[in-house]
Specification:
Strand content: 25-35%
Distance between the termini: 42 Å
Helix content: 10-25%
Shape: globular
Radius of gyration: 25 Å
């Protein structure tokens, strides 16, 4: 096992396109690190740089105390699981898993032991004589993971391995991957655009946007205290409500909440932190016009448009101010107000988040 250290890692493509803009973080020995962000943010490029499949323009990548910038992928002691499985269609499951070990000249008895132990862990022993075309998507992904496991590498790299699976199977495989990683205690870096997948898998979460890291930390720490409005809106479903505020449109409310802002700012409230009620003592209260309802079983999402602030003054677009925005409220159960109804929602003072006007930093308060 080994830790992975990225120091000012950069990737610039011909033409001056900066895909990775100086990234620094460390994945501890045995940790499960998840890189998450929207398409095009650079997460897969970064993973491929760790694997050696992409050249590094600047900085260093250290695996187990060894800088690997100039080391070939086969010599980095890593194993990668791809989105498309990358299995050899003409080989059996057994031979797919054994192929890399044979190329290294490993003795047949040791190959057989490793393959059968991995197959038992992944519960694919009855499938060892089948070809990939005879397997389901989930079974193929297990084989791809088995091929990585038999190598017993220092680091596992996962490039969106569950993207081709249906929703139910993704959940099941997500649990299996986490259980497997905890059992093997192998340092792992996992790429996904699915924030729920990232939250449930990660020991350490790296949120990326536009080739830079927006925030690094434990999943719940990032959820509770997002560093930027991008993180606040990307982590969490539905996303955090973000309200532009200033002394003109919510000045009285901010004073009442003892919130001081440097002119303009952005106030954030998670949908689940709102409740349908009167004004909460020491908290935020808004009046909404209900525009839409989504019932998803155990929860109901209410979409409303801001009508009034806590002090009763209309929050509408005026010169120099931003217009009112949509608010999402997450309620337990199936009960919900009617579309077109006016409701009051409130959130406790300690559930409010405050960001700079440009959304790039979290403010105290």
């Amino acid at each position: 096992m080994a830790n992975v250290v990225l120091n000012d890692v950069r990737k610039t493509y011909p033409g001056g396109v900066d895909a990775i803009k100086g990234i620094n973080f460390e994945v501890g020995d045995g940790q499960f690190c998840v890189l998450v962000g929207p398409s095009g943010c650079g997460k897969s490029t970064l993973l491929r740089m760790v694997a050696g499949l992409e050249t590094i323009t600047g900085g260093t990548i250290d695996i187990g105390g060894r800088v690997v910038n100039e080391i070939e992928p086969a010599d980095r002691d890593i194993a990668m699981v791809f989105q498309n499985y990358a299995l050899y269609p003409h080989m059996t499951v057994y031979n797919n898993m054994a192929y890399g070990l044979r190329n290294r000249g490993m003795p047949k008895p040791e190959i057989d032991t490793r393959v059968r132990e991995a197959a038992q862990i992944l519960e694919i022993t009855p499938m060892l004589d089948r070809k990939p075309r005879q397997l389901s998507g989930g079974q193929r992904q297990r084989v791809a993971m088995g091929r990585a496991i038999v190598r017993q590498p220092k680091v596992f790299l996962f490039d969106e391995p569950l993207s081709n699976l249906d929703a139910k199977l993704r959940i099941a495989m997500r649990v299996e991957i986490r259980k497997l990683q905890r059992r093997l205690k192998t340092t792992s870096i996992y790429v996904t655009h699915d924030q729920l997948e990232a939250m449930t898998l990660a020991d350490i979460l790296v949120v990326m946007n536009g080739g830079v890291v927006e925030q690094i930390g434990k999943p719940l720490d990032i959820y509770r205290k997002p560093a930027t409005t991008f993180v606040a809106s990307f982590i969490g479903a539905p996303p955090m409500n973000l309200l532009p505020v200033n002394t003109n449109n919510l000045g009285g409310l901010l004073d009442a909440l003892q919130i001081k802002i440097p002119g303009d700012a952005i106030l954030g409230v998670r949908p689940e932190d709102f409740a349908i009620a009167g004004a909460a003592q020491g908290g935020l209260a808004l009046e909404l016009m209900v525009d839409a309802i989504e019932r998803v079983g155990a929860e109901t999402f209410v979409y409303g448009t801001r009508a009034h602030d806590h002090g009763g003054s209309t929050v509408s677009a005026r010169p120099g101010e931003l217009p009112p925005g949509e608010i999402i409220v997450r309620l337990p159960g199936e009960a919900a107000p009617a579309i077109g109804e006016r409701i009051k929602v409130s959130a406790a003072r300690d559930k409010l988040h405050l960001f700079s006007a440009d959304g790039r930093s979290r403010l105290p308060g």
